[in-house]
Amino acid sequence: MIDLAKKFSHANIYFELYHHRAIYTNEDALVVKKEQGFTGTETKSLFLKDKKDNNYVYLTFTTKQTDFKALGKIIGKRLSIVSSEHMEEQTGQKQGAVSPFGYEEQIPIIIDEELLSKEKLVFAPGRPDQTMAIKTIDLNKIIQLLKIPMFLMPANENNNHQTK
């Protein structure tokens, strides 16, 4: 994993980094968020693959169900979630602490378009004991900085968002 804090600092990209006990579930994340006092929209990153084992990351709301058919339409390939073992072997990350970006190889990211209307996004930067928050307006800067191929999941393609 690339040290995102270091990379963002050098590029003058605003971020907040929080250190806390390990988080692996959305329920734990909500408790830690309250304890730490950080703000922003909680996200989840799903580590996906196609039939040829090409990897992708899907960044969406923690409470949103994933429409794999819609994702497949965007990429032009059928996608599925990789096994925990495969993901750990390939990225060193545990399920529940997957980063949306910062990998040594350029893994394409699919971003839920609805996230773009939020002020700040909160995610695990590849470690279960850290949380990072970024300004959503900096997302394109980050994608360009890391040279990641990006796809957008149109809001009308995935309308299963439940707010909590």
UniProtKB/TrEMBL annotation:
<dbReference type="GO" id="GO:0002161">
    <property type="term" value="F:aminoacyl-tRNA deacylase activity"/>
</dbReference>
<dbReference type="InterPro" id="IPR040285">
    <property type="entry name" value="ProX/PRXD1"/>
</dbReference>
<comment type="similarity">
    <text>Belongs to the PRORSD1 family.</text>
</comment>
<feature type="domain" description="YbaK/aminoacyl-tRNA synthetase-associated">
    <location>
        <begin position="40"/>
        <end position="141"/>
    </location>
</feature>
<keyword id="KW-0436">Ligase</keyword>
<dbReference type="GO" id="GO:0004812">
    <property type="term" value="F:aminoacyl-tRNA ligase activity"/>
</dbReference>
<dbReference type="Pfam" id="PF04073">
    <property type="entry name" value="tRNA_edit"/>
</dbReference>
<keyword id="KW-0030">Aminoacyl-tRNA synthetase</keyword>
<protein>
    <submittedName>
        <fullName>YbaK/prolyl-tRNA synthetase-associated protein</fullName>
    </submittedName>
</protein>
<dbReference type="InterPro" id="IPR036754">
    <property type="entry name" value="YbaK/aa-tRNA-synt-asso_dom_sf"/>
</dbReference>
<dbReference type="GO" id="GO:0006412">
    <property type="term" value="P:translation"/>
</dbReference>
<keyword id="KW-0648">Protein biosynthesis</keyword>
<dbReference type="InterPro" id="IPR007214">
    <property type="entry name" value="YbaK/aa-tRNA-synth-assoc-dom"/>
</dbReference>
